[in-house]
Give the backbone structure.
Amino acid sequence: MRIVAIGGGPAGLYFGILMKQAFPEVEIEILERNRPDDTFGFGVVFSDETLSFFEDADPVSAALIRARFRTWREIETRFRGERIVSTGHGFAAIARTELLAILRQRAQALGCTIRFEREIVAGQDLPQADLVIGCDGVNSIVRERFAADFGATIDLRPNRFSWLGADFALPAFTFIFEETEHGLFQVHAYPFAARRSTWIVECSEATWRDAKLDRATQVETVNFCERIFASHLDGHRLLANHSVWRQFPTVRCGRWHRGNVVLLGDAAHTAHYSIGSGTKLAMEDAIALLAAFRTHGTGNVPAVLAAYEDDRRVDVAKLQRAAQTSLEWFENASRYRVQEPLPFVFNLMTRSKRITYDNLKARDPRLVERVDRHFSGRAGEGLDGPSAAIPPAFTPFRARSVELANRIVVSPMCQYSAEEGTVNDWHLVHLGSRAIGGAGLVIAEMTNVEAEGRISPGCAGLYRDEHRAAWKRIVDFTHRHSAAKIGIQLAHAGRKASMHRPWEGADLPLTAEEGAWQTLGPSADPFRPGAPVPKAMDRTDMDRIRTEFVRATRWSAEAGFDWLELHMAHGYLLSSFLSPLANLRRDEYGGALENRMRYPLEVFSAVREAWPAELPMSVRISATDWMTDGTGFTPGDAVVVARELKRLGCDLIDVSSAGNSPASKPDYGRMYQVPFAEKIRYEAGIPVMAVGAILDVDHANTVLAAGRADLAVLARPHLADPYLTLHAATRYGVDLAWPPQYLLGKPKPAAL
């Protein structure tokens, strides 16, 4: 078998090493366009976990690499004049020149042929071989040659960065944030040799242009950076090596192989340097490709390549998702300048979601204790001594006259179990058990202001006198038997009404024989083909529905609810007015966002006026329609709407997403909607609730301590465990009050 690797970087060299060990008879040729002593960049960084993979794959090269490593366990952040060090992380770095030299020598010793100054140019035929590996980097000629087959996309990110070095060794991985007259500059730096560090400078495009770096030579770039980072360099110099200003390209491919050609490393995928190195990804690709050869042998290349991609794609997708979250954090770093140093550092450390509150506490308990103490103080705890350092989720929160005992919220969850809109024993047990389960706020399910506003015949309502009495029974139970506050979410399903209960048939409309009713919407456009066609609301309809919202609001107050939430999310009536995907009107209620939000804001104003002034109101919105073509309601639109709601007296925004179109493509994952909540919190200046795959109190603590939200809303975890908050309090060593009937079963809190 003959294999040709195009690209003599870590991916091609490491695969050559591994393949030659496993299959010595295979002929391997590595073509490198540069000379042996050419290299770009400075150091390469690896985590302890990555090093263990290398040791398992090839102990010989791993030992040679480890012998030249510079190691550290600290991450230092320099922000607003303070230097905060976090410990327990475990990293190592090596000069890229040394890494390549080790891999080349090892590959050649095993029988690989390396040919330098051999460049494959566009249009040139690829070498004849049983397998051709395209490992020729981010600007891969191999990938471009078969662009249609690989389905590559390149997302050129807006920030600018320059990869520099420094002539001294920093003590640890170091983040530096330096405010200048031009804007914020940030540094990602780490030591890789006795007298060398990598020093990556990053800034926004606006800052880059304002500093005239768009016209700077390499020498001028070095001089500028030495000046603004003089207090961190301590008289040392910055070094350049092809250090131009660039934009980071996020490369993704729909396929990594076609025929006998396969992509490895940056040719197939990239991950932002803030989360790790492309070298790590490339070498792990090589390990995975060898594993596929071990399974399928050298006689079936198509099976090998399919197995390689199947095995590797999920891990790469996870890393790219984390890298995307991390790079977006740095793109938005200027918004965090208002934070104090401790929460800023926690925010930075947990930015990618790979490290959470619990992870960081296991690594660096002292730092997390300081963060807890700071958060408790800001929350108004006023506690002295060690007991003040309680996790953020268990600190109180005040909105108007209502004080929540903690920041865990039970999300409104439709139960589809009401009878003609009247809630019953199921709802009493469902909501009552979550209330005594310790959550600070329990929000009852979407409650509709008219019968025709229900999603299904089983949905809850507040449009008859008996509805008010039924809700009061649940509110009274909550107040009598728990410390929880209880809220109600008022809504109208709009064009998504007149459907079966989910377990009777997903997205199945009612028939006329089953009691279907006329639905309403901003336009006569159904949610999806086959769904009920709504009536386009006229002004009379708008006035009537607004009046029904006001009536339900007054009845909510009479029932004793502590909190009211208006539902403007998930494609229901008010949400559909906001989204151009559902609102096709050409009058003063359609078109521009100013018009589309006119009616929802009218309803909010009327409800706010009817709701007691001393009680809080929140609004749930869908912050994005998740359309891949950029159409629909956007996070920028959400900020505008949130500002208007704040102006009209809204206390919090409950930030969700999607629901206006079946064509939406949400990017699901842990805490996947939190970035939208954070954006609204900082840019609209209003407190927010974060919701969406917040799976436990660890996630809640992460979101809260980082300053991304003010309350954490959990839905499905509360279905699995009604006593989630009480159980978490025991785990975190927090002594929450239990119902007296349950005291015999109360566990002793774990030691902090």
Remarks:
- Residues 381-387 have pLDDT under 50 and may be disordered.
- The two ends are 60 Å apart (CA to CA).
